[in-house]
TrEMBL record:
The lineage of its organism: Bacteria, Pseudomonadati, Pseudomonadota, Alphaproteobacteria, Hyphomicrobiales. This is sn-glycerol-3-phosphate-binding periplasmic protein UgpB. Part of the ABC transporter complex UgpBAEC involved in sn-glycerol-3-phosphate (G3P) import. Binds G3P. GO terms for cellular component: periplasmic space. SUPFAM superfamilies: Periplasmic binding protein-like II. It is found in: Periplasm. PANTHER family: ARABINOSE-BINDING PROTEIN-RELATED, SN-GLYCEROL-3-PHOSPHATE-BINDING PERIPLASMIC PROTEIN UGPB. The complex is composed of two ATP-binding proteins (UgpC), two transmembrane proteins (UgpA and UgpE) and a solute-binding protein (UgpB). Keywords: Periplasm, Signal, Transport. Belongs to the bacterial solute-binding protein 1 family. It comes from the Bacteria. Pfam families: SBP_bac_8. It comes from Brucella intermedia LMG 3301. NCBIfam families: PRK10974.1 (NF008211).
Amino acid sequence: MVNPPGQRTGNHRAQMPSGSVSDGFIVHMFSPRLSLAFRFFSFRMLSFSDLFCHWKNRRLILCKKLHSYKCNEYIADVGTLSPPKGARMFTQSHTRGGNMLIRLITTSALTSALALTIGSQAFAQTELAWWHGMTGANNEMVNELSKEFNESQSEYKIVPVYKGTYPETLNAGIAAFRSKQPPAILQVFDAGSGVMMAAGGAVVPAAEVLEKGGFKFDKSQYLPGIVAYYSKPDGTMLSFPYNSSSPILYYNKDAFKKAGLDENNPPKTWPEVFEAAKKIKSSGAAACGFTSTWLTWIQTENFAAWNNVPYGTNENGLGGTDVKLEINSPLYIQHFQSIADLAKDGTFRYGGRTSEAKQLFTSGECAMLTESSGGLGDVVKSGINYGIGQLPYYEGHGPQNTIPGGAALWVFAGLSDEQYKGVAEFFNFLSQTKIQVKLHEKSGYLPVTLAAYEETKKSDFYEKNPGRETPILQMMGRAPTENSKGVRLINLPQVRDILNEEFEAMLGGKQDAKTALENGVKRANDAIAAAQ
């Protein structure tokens, strides 16, 4: 866990002074390099008698009209340089000599500050580009958090830039790094984690960025499943978990009621989902009974974890990079053949490889949707009368635990020291309990810290919003097994593309589920071997 706002380890910049000052003022005589540290915020023609300066929290402050040791009007701030070795120190007094000293320093300060303001702003913020792949309500949240951070301090400015889909954002980031113009922060989806981890020296671990920025980092304060997913085998957390999610079932309560189904009791197993979908379709309650976003992430990777069956060898890649997929076993074949059969008459409708199918649900076309918990913002925005259920499973296999989806924030090597400090400030900001609670409650993404989760529970949010705790309980419910720790392949985006091609051929009636899965396994295994 990083420090609460304003608390740091070591000697780092203090927060902007806020008014009251201590009774004992210490004024330091600096070398000429002092003028380089000025941050000038306002300048007015003032008489010497109006100007006072004081030293507080390692900053030299200039004030106007000091009464009862209160800084009534803030004029300028002379940085945070440590006093030069051997500097003479004077205590302010109201003697003639003391005032002359203050005037000397004040005059020097204002002259330097004025020189810095001519033709340009005295203090240029360090801009930090944040490349991301968020759309809809989640894009609005990115902009809101960036604005809130920017308004909370004056040294750094987060500039969010939408770079397309998750895969497109990853590719853009890699290309930018190769051209030596990387963004300060790159949002990388779960499938890209293996790619980034394999990049070695191209990235700087998030934990290292935070610690070098002066913030104490304690990973035990984060949800265990999330930390493990974004960490190296030795436990070093490589990226900052921004929008972690878990797949859940959304259902249209009005459609359930029209079809004669219990609107307060969503199906729990896959056979129940398939039967409910048929009833919804045949009754005319909705044009389609069931759809799903992210067939690879939800119906293969999380399917494996939730039903405690292997996705691949070597602990699905967490035990080593030499992995062979095992998703052509009987349970997978049964599951995908059921989906293929429903697709023949439109009971199941395919929306696309990523989150496109969400629109089929929010428009009312399909009555059930398996989708990321992070899709909640758009579901709420649609105004549909929805309910939430846990991810379906097969009796005798699940439920075990789900694995994280969503994305994390990565930091490239090669940034300036000032950029790294700014990134650390931003990660610290995102770690604040109030920020995590807001992100969780508004977006549906998981709170990444235990403190935020506990705070949300204390507020009775889950009691007032049934189903909202479901994705967290799914991930934390049971200790992970070799089948449910996660999936980590050095070319997982490529493997997903291969599997999607086979699933699309299956849903188009060109092959059955067994053929699709066997073809997918062979092609994926060849691609993994070639990428070693």
